[in-house]
Amino acid sequence: MTWVGMTAVGRLAGALLLVASVAAGCGRVPDVTTLPAPSPSPRPVLLVDEPTTASMNALGGGRIEVVGGCLGADGGVIVWPHGTRFVGDDPLTVEVPGHGRFALGDRISLGGGWIVEHVGGTVPDAPWTFRGQRVPDSCLAHDVFLAGPY
Description:
The strands form 3 sheets. A 5-stranded mixed β-barrel has the order 2-3-4-11-8. A 3-stranded antiparallel β-sheet has the order 5-6-7, with no helix packed on it. The protein has a two-stranded antiparallel sheet with strand order 9-10.
């Protein structure tokens, strides 16, 4: 029998029976407060160089973003100057010695040079370690800029 062929009372009784059977089969519906809170986004990998006074002379940087799981800018991963560290999570913020504090989306200019270039350059085989740090394969899939200390 279809809903159309039933009387109004029959449709109401059928609807109540349907709701009661569904509710009985589902058990208790949890309160919103009993649901687990979403986990915060993990921080990206922050590649930081060892102490040095030497630097290449190219200009790098751009708008700070997460690139392949690493902190970088304008589509390239950055190996940040020694001493760079996270200083905030909302928004994600880094402090770069000699440059100041920067959040995701801010623009930064850094001296240095490209150590991995995918077009016309050299791309090391994964896994790759640079100055004692293992560079994640997901980051190595992008160009990598070595920022100098100045």
